[in-house]
Design goal:
Layout (H helix, E strand, L loop, with lengths): L1 E4 L6 E7 L2 E8 L6 H9 L7 E7 L16 H15 L4 E6 L1 H12 L4 E7 L12 H6 L3 H15 L2 H7 L4 H13 L5 H7 L3 E7 L8 H6 L3 E5 L6 H4 L1 H9 L4
Parallel strand pairs: 3-4, 3-5, 5-6, 6-7, 7-8
Antiparallel strand pairs: 1-2, 2-4
Helix pairs in contact: 2-3, 5-7
Length: 252
């Protein structure tokens, strides 16, 4: 386990790491998740073995600190992720990022292009204010103190055992602020930032999640959009073969 200070007050973002060849692959989790839980089984596959791999837990999640005076916006998370990569001596990394983590990765690639050479985004949030069915919407619908003091426990019962297994490890206040920040989005919004980037970009959409809105415009901007058969939001669990192939750079 390694760590880096991220907020000017001594709070630490932490990650686990396996050695290997550069460029490093950096795995970033979604809202209420942990990077190693969602990605370690992918990084260890034969077609991906031998590369340096970092599994970063964003502030408020997993093994990272959870300061109560931190904003947990997308910009805040991107700054913490940059601090981790700077401390790790990482440049030109491949970011494999899921859901909210994909939004954070897009913001990071825009702010710090020196850190990112490739994006593999799995159902990343691209637009502000997603539909009410989105997980972030259910969390952000509560007032912060109400969520911390009771609604958090009810949400854990509603999200199902898989997501709850990692969400219960996230700090409730950090989780709520992260959900609110994700719904507000970045400025410019993540979709616009993604279309304007000049690195290799792959977007994975689970077949069961329906057609990705605006995929034609993304493809026109050079983003390779891949619909993964037999998969929903958690593509790395539902179809790990296709997920690993995309990370490895294989084309369907």
């Amino acid at each position: 386990m390694r760590e880096a200070e991220f907020d000017g007050r001594g709070s630490r973002v932490r990650w686990t790491e396996t050695p290997g060849a550069e460029p490093a692959r950096v795995y970033v989790h979604g809202l209420g998740a942990m990077s190693s839980v969602y990605h370690a089984h992918i990084a260890s596959r034969p077609e991906l073995a031998g590369r340096r791999s970092l599994f970063v837990d964003l502030p408020g999640h997993g093994i990272s600190d959870r300061p109560q005076d931190f904003g947990y916006t997308l910009d805040d998370h991107a700054g913490a992720l940059a601090a981790a990569l700077d401390a790790a001596g990482v440049n030109g990394a491949e970011l494999i990022a899921h859901s909210m983590g994909g939004s954070v990765a897009i913001v990071l690639a825009h702010r710090r292009p020196d850190l990112v050479s490739r994006l593999v985004l799995t159902e990343a949030n691209l637009d502000a204010f997603p539909p009410p069915t989105a997980g972030s919407s259910g969390i952000a619908a509560h007032e912060e103190d109400d969520f911390v003091n009771g609604a958090h426990a009810r949400v854990l019962e509603d999200v199902g055992p898989q997501w709850a297994a990692t969400m219960r490890l996230a700090d409730p206040r950090a989780l709520h602020r992260s959900a609110v920040g994700l719904r507000r989005g970045s400025e410019p919004v993540m979709r616009t930032l993604l279309e304007g980037l000049h690195v290799d970009r792959v977007y994975l959409q689970g077949e069961h999640s329906g057609e990705l809105t605006g995929h034609q415009d993304l493809e026109a901007a050079g983003v390779r959009v891949v619909t993964v058969p037999g998969a929903g939001h958690n593509v790395m669990f539902d179809n790990p073969d296709a997920f690993a192939a995309a990370v490895a750079g294989a084309r369907a």
